[in-house]
Request: fold
Amino acid sequence: MPKIHYKSVEEIELIRESSLLVSKTLGEIAKVIRPGIKTIELDKLAETFIRDSGGVPAFLNYHGFPYSLCISMNDQVVHGFPGQHVLTEGDVVSVDCGVILNKYFGDSAFTFAIGEISDTAKNLMRVTRECLDLGVEKAVAGMRIGDIGYAVQEHAEKHGYGVVKELVGHGVGLELHEKPEVPNYGKRGAGVKLEEGMVIAIEPMINAGKARVKFWDDGWTVSTIDGKPSAHYEHTVAIRKGQPDILSTFSYVDNVLKEKNNN
Ligand code: MG
Ligand code: MG
Reply:
């Protein structure tokens, strides 16, 4: 069994650099994502931006994954392939990005609305982002992994949404996926104790309908069993001075989207 790797302050700062590059990459995606763009164009843009910034796209060739981004539309939950698909008004698109910079990984995901989307989709996105915030709040020394999962699950299910159980968050560091697993469900006070120096990716995957998912024959894409939309937000978070220190940020994306809405 691999053990949890507790990070030094220096290592946390390196993971912050990696996570910031991920956040800036998502900010670049925010600038161009719109009806009419092909998802493969977003992938190319991300790869170029990451490499020009001195990083390496972490997902590219990861266990054979063929792209730099996971782009998962509508009923796709995670691990979707970018391709020739043209985004259209009403799509809900999760963009998940990872980089390696100075040997350390960063990991973050954001769900974008393409043009005007349904109220159902809007609510799902809002609640999923709230789930992430509530989960992050529990990333405090002395709490347990189950406290994070409980907070996410409780909020999602209160709104009648399905919490994906087959896929989970994870430790982040010199590997993209380290111990411990960080489920989006759980019991208060249960599971691995959260301690100083842990760095984890918290990533609620929340479905508008049923919780169950199916795995595609392409070996990667995961979608909802009932065809209803899914949303996904992710931050890389360190436990530092006992408190959650969010190493990735949505500020780049939020600023771009605010600007877009004003025009
Ligand atoms: Mg991710
Ligand atoms: Mg992740």
User: Anything to note?
Assistant: The chain has five helices and 15 strands. The chain has a mean pLDDT of 97.
